[in-house]
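Slide 14.
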Amino acid sequence: MQNSRVQSTRAQDGRALLACVILAHTDPQHVQRLVRALDPFPVFLHCDPSTPDDAFAEMTRGLAERAVVMPRIKTGWARWENVEAELQGYRAALATTDATHVAVLTGTDYPLASSDEISELLGEHAGTSFALIDPLPHPEWGRSGGFDRLRYRHWAWRKRMIRLPIPRRLPHGVTFAGGSQLKVLSREHAQAVLDAVDAHPELVGFWKRSWVADETFVPSILMTERFVPDWEQKHVRATLWWIGWDGTRRKSPPWLTHEHAERVLSRRSDAQQELPHFFARKFSTAESTPLLDALDAEHVRAGTPGRSAAPAAQDGTP
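Slide 15: predicted structure.
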């Protein structure tokens, strides 16, 4: 990773800027397009080592100076290392930029709004995070509400779950929670997560044998008051991602195609959420190019469309 500070960390007019941690595996053409669409935000790109060398070279060739290629960690389906790559991104973003917020994206994501609009939102919510996180038991995570992910030791093997059916003691003093890895954290909250990790290596050891740790580790740190005392007051309970879940039983959401255009361009997927979505997943060059072209035309990476006002944080922060 480069040691110098990443260029273009703040616009000349002082707008809030977002540092983007991208966790990529495939489709170098789309990753390159994603990095360009995020201009002028600094990007910290992680590519799994299983990606073929030629694809990795294409993915990282000619990137802008605001993009940093991170050391490659062997990530994979349901593995702890997905969290490790996320934490690595936070460390780099906080150390080398003055961004006010940090987002975690996958290499199949894409912004639904212009960078100006995203900066406007974040500028209105200084010190505030955006995440859809709930305490366990999670109503959609089976009969245990997700606690079985933690009570038993797990290993992922070829996209299969191996569980040791001997319960273990849960760490004391933690508010267990779950939610998507895709989120936008304030700089202060990202730092609080890293501080908790550094001060409590036993939690890292425990979570390494949990199931799909990227959906419970950081959420649990954020929801635990002794680690992040102001989380309840300083976050908007919302997801900034439009995801095409359609009710079909599947391990990952479907590819977005031009058939999804009307719904994606509306930037709304949940009538209960006032805030429109600012990103979406998942896209591919092969499946999604017409939709991506429509998004670029709609959101002009040449202007800023109007948007609905964002809700205030739970403490009334403007």
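Speaker note: Confidence is low (pLDDT under 50) at residues 302-318.
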